[in-house]
Amino acid sequence: MSLSFSIPLAIRMVGEAGQGIILMGSILAKSLVKEGYWVAQSQHYGAQVRGGVSYCDTLFDIEPIDYPLADHFDVLYLMHGIGSNNIEKLKRNSILFYDEKFVEKLPQHINRITRKIVKVPASRVALEELSNINVANMISLGVLCSVTQLVSEEILIETVRENVSANYKDIDEKAVRIGYSLIEKRYPLKFYKKIERLGKGYE
Predict the structure, then answer these.
(1) What region, left, alpha or beta, does residue 143 occupy, with left being phi > 0 and alpha being psi -120 to 50 degrees?
(2) Pyruvate/ketoisovalerate oxidoreductase catalytic domain: which residues (predicted)?
(3) What are the distances in angstroms from CA 109 to CA 96, 176, 187?
């Protein structure tokens, strides 16, 4: 007898503390719940409020998740070079996003891990079009959801407006809309099943 079960997809967003990584992850998780997924999330704050490493992991699945942590990721969003060591945690043929302003270069062997690499001008666009680098995280979130086709633009905007302060609602909505239309590439994520055979007596 065989047992079939779904494998959760895992996303890590990582950057410098102060870039809004935790807020990105929280909004993504809540948006995925609205899209009907089972979701688990964990967060890590650097030792410093600004300057340390901050990351947020989001696992989601079409079935309940029995273990909420991941060692390797289907998607890595790198908002700062300070988190570049996380590239080693990418699965084969996964998706790597990186902010061109704060990630100077990628390791030479990255093409042996994946060719799905998306250079994102989020911080530059935030400054040039919205005059506020603090909304680069919302541009980035729009890019991630658009490229992976995980969350619709309207659900993402609805969730953003529910979870940011009143002063940021309008500018964050603009940032998400910019991000959603910024990159033409599409790398839809797909769930897959793992099948294991049960030993005699475990049917």
Answers:
(1) alpha
(2) 17-169
(3) 13, 32, 21
How many whole angstroms separate alpha carbon 155 and alpha carbon 93?
Answer: 28
Q: Pick the closest to residue 132 from 94, 71, 174 (CA basis).
A: 174
User: Which tokens in the block code for residue 46?
Assistant: 């650097």
What is the full per-residue pLDDT of the chain (203 aa) written as tens digits?
445 667 899 999 999 988 999 999 999 999 999 999 999 999 987 655 566 899 999 999 999 998 889 999 999 999 999 999 999 999 999 999 999 999 999 999 999 999 999 999 999 999 999 999 999 999 999 999 999 999 999 999 999 999 999 999 999 999 999 999 999 999 999 887 765 554 555 45
Domains in the chain, start-ordered, CATH in brackets? 9-188 (3.40.920.10)
Q: How far apart are CA 27 and CA 185, in angstroms?
A: 22
Q: Which two tokens stand for residue 137?
A: 């995280």
Query: Of 110, 125, 114, 120, which is closest to residue 178 (Cα–Cα)?
Result: 125
**Can you give the pTM of this predicted structure?**
0.91
Q: What are phi and psi of 63, to 5 degrees?
A: -125, 160
